Amino acid sequence: MEYERILYEKVEPEIVKITMNRPEKRNAQDPLMFSEMTDAFIEADLDEEVRVIIFAGAGKDFSAGHDMSGQGHPAKEGTVMRKALDTELTGMEMRLKREDYVFLNQGINIRNVSKPTIAMVQGNCLAGGWLNASMCDLIMASEDAKFGDPVVRMTPAGVEILFHPYDVGFRKAKEMLWTGDPITAQEAKELGLVSKVVPREKLEEETLALAKRIALSPPVAVSLVKRSINFAQDEMGQRNAWQYHMLIHQLSHASDETRRWGEERAKAMQQGGLKEMLKERDSKFAQ
Ligand code: ZN
Question: pTM for the full model?
Answer without folding.
Answer: 0.94
